[in-house]
Design a protein that fits this description.
heterodimer; A: alpha/beta; six-stranded mixed sheet; four-stranded antiparallel sheet; 28% strand; globular; B: 338 residues; mainly alpha; 13 helices
Chain lengths: 281, 338
């Protein structure tokens, strides 16, 4: 059972700008938390500070009661995996080597990759649907495949906590759903914690167990998808231009809200509801 | 890979067998190495060739290894010992020493022995390069990122380059002195003895011994600095180690042989084209290839082009650059190599 806490975290950007302003968060095993917010709301600095990559001006990030900033880098990498925004990878690196880099914190200086570790890497590739692609070079992969390979690397790091910064930003809708499903399964099956920074409200609606909405570095809404994905909760992200409906989600295995960024001229005066025939029984 | 590794011993033996004066047989070389029944004149020629070959081996290996480490750290195929300003620092030290030894005005008292330039100029070049290295380490200790370090290096290189030009402008009318500064900037392996190889061999040995500790971390840096940090790499320590090692390698090589262009920049790129980007293979093979290339070029210059007095740096650029350009253009039509 892992416990991940963020206590009154403040991250400054230069002398004048506060990127993260007093964020509190407590997550436990089995939680897939989506951090939603508009551009510049502080999602990426929050995730970087959680990963120990950015120094906090005040506050603390703790894993099982230990302050992340005080962990040695390899020890930290055995507990927290961080997947950056974007799909930039060295072009000539093989898919296997890309994923194998996740084993660095688990290996001694002169230790070679063990048979078991190689099997774990292939298992991670199988999990993301890239089985048999391990010898391909990164330049031979599509954007969706690179994203899956990066996800396989994060899985192969075998940490109880995974932080992902906009993991689906460059993907088409089909691949977005596929990646979201992989994440949901990974968290649910192995009892880990996933934190995803994203703009994609509908993805969060389908797979998140917890949602945090940030606005100018502050938490303006937090809780279950049902409680957060309301007109009031999403105001910082959409303004008043949104349409909220409900539909069955196979990923969530229940009916969940969905949101359209849509200016219907109502200026938030009335909630739009889909017609009954659109609802899947 | 095996081909690259076998070129060094072959080219080293060839460098001893052939040269400006006469050629030797393998039997004579055996006699030189393991018995002493070789005429004095032949033994002397082989002594000179051995010194030159040893210096070429060490200098070529040091420059190429330095370039390979820096390209890995900065994730930039254009990185080389010269972009950090180490080479320019050495040039500044050497230029000042040459001016002092050359007898400009009141400083002429330093001209107390004919042999001193052979020791003092490399020593001054090394001091200049060390000064730049110290500056870079201070900047690195303040937590500067790799790109900041690179920019600092470029700034220091520009400053040192400007100071060298100032020195050259001051002594422009002294033709002998101007010529000696210009000749030093070409780089040369003339009149080098095994003693000259020692100052390069020490940092080279340390750097080679450090490869097992560095290669995996440099592989991870290829994914981006933040990703490397997230995977557990101590980025500040890695930056300092690589900058210090590569600067010392370049400083010692430039101090001993002057500015030999091309090797630090092109050899690591060439090896990357052939064997890929894993630093566990790339770093030692870059050292081997740099050593082999400088040996072969020096041998070619001494035997085939003996009367032209071309310096190795010029020959390397003239012959190697077109080949390298051809390879790069060919690769860029495919998927790229970096």
């Amino acid at each position: 059972m892992t416990r991940f806490e963020v206590r009154d975290l403040v991250v400054d950007r230069g002398a004048t700008r506060r990127a993260v302003d007093g964020v509190d968060l407590a997550l436990c095993s089995g939680t897939l938390c989506f951090v939603l917010g508009a551009n510049g709301s502080g999602k990426s600095p929050l995730l970087r500070a959680m990963a120990g990559l950015e120094a906090a001006a005040s506050g603390a990030v703790l894993v099982d009661g230990e302050v992340v900033a005080r962990l040695d880098p390899r020890g930290r990498a055995r507990r927290i995996a961080w997947m950056p925004q974007g799909l930039e990878v060295p072009r000539r690196v093989s898919v296997f080597d890309l994923v194998a880099s996740a084993r660095y914190p688990h290996r001694g200086v002169f230790e070679r990759l063990t048979v078991e570790a190689a099997a774990d890497i292939r298992a991670a590739l199988r999990r993301v649907g890239l089985e048999g692609h391990d010898r391909r070079r990164c330049y031979e992969l599509s954007g969706g495949e690179v994203e899956r390979a990066l996800l396989a690397r994060a899985f192969a790091q075998e940490t109880p906590l995974l932080l992902l910064d906009e993991p689906t930003a460059a993907l088409d809708p089909r691949n977005r759903l596929a990646v979201a499903g992989l994440l949901r399964d990974w968290v649910a099956e192995d009892g880990r914690i996933g934190v995803v920074a994203s703009h994609d409200v509908n993805l969060a609606a389908q797979v998140a167990t917890h949602i945090v909405v940030l606005d100018r570095g502050r938490v303006v809404a937090a809780g279950s998808p049902e409680s957060v994905l309301t007109r009031a909760g999403l105001e910082p992200l959409f303004g008043s231009n949104m349409v909220i409906g409900r539909r069955f989600s196979a990923l969530a295995r229940e009916e969940r809200p969905f949101i359209l960024a849509w200016d219907d001229g109502s200026r938030g005066e009335a909630e739009s509801v889909p017609s009954r025939r659109d609802r899947t029984p | 890979m095996c081909v690259l590794a076998s070129i060094l011993p072959t080219s080293f033996v060839l460098a001893l067998l052939f040269g400006e004066t006469r050629g030797f047989t393998l039997r004579e070389l055996w006699a030189y190495a393991f018995t002493s029944d070789l005429p004095f004149i032949d033994a002397t020629i082989l002594d000179l060739r051995l010194g030159r070959a040893l210096v070429a081996t060490m200098v070529g290996a040091a420059l190429a290894l330095s370039g390979a480490m820096l390209q890995g750290l900065f994730r930039n195929p254009l990185a080389s010992p010269s972009v950090l300003g180490v080479t320019s620092g050495a040039a500044l030290g050497a230029s000042i020493a040459l001016v002092l030894l050359g007898g400009l005005g009141p400083a002429s008292w330093l001209r107390f022995a004919d042999t001193m330039p052979l020791v003092l100029v490399p020593a001054a070049a090394f001091a200049g390069a060390l000064l730049v290295t110290a500056l870079l380490v201070v900047v690195g200790l303040r937590g500067a990122s790799s790109s900041m370090l690179l920019l600092c290096g470029i700034g220091i290189a520009s400053l040192c380059g400007g100071l060298v030009q100032t020195v050259q402008s001051i002594v422009l009318r002294d033709w002998e002195l101007s010529a000696s500064i210009t000749a030093w900037s070409f780089g040369s392996l003339d009149d080098r003895s095994p003693v000259h190889a020692l100052p390069v061999a020490l940092p080279l040995a340390v750097a080679l011994l450090m490869i097992p500790f560095l290669h995996r971390e440099l592989d991870l840096v290829a994914f981006g600095e933040d990703t490397a940090r997230a995977l557990g790499v101590r980025d500040l320590r890695l930056r300092l180690q690589v900058v210090l090692l590569s600067s010392l390698l370049a400083a010692s090589a430039v101090a001993v042989a002057g500015q030999i262009a091309f090797i630090g920049l092109v050899v690591p790129n060439f090896v990357r084209l052939v064997v890929g980007g894993r630093h566990g293979t790339l770093l030692p093979l870059s050292a081997l290839s740099g050593a082999s290339l400088l040996l072969v070029v020096d041998l070619f210059e001494r035997s085939v082009l003996a009367e032209m007095s071309l310096q190795p740096g010029a020959l390397l650029s003239l012959v190697g650059a077109p080949i390298f350009l051809f390879l790069i253009i060919k690769e860029s039509r495919g998927q790229g190599y970096w």
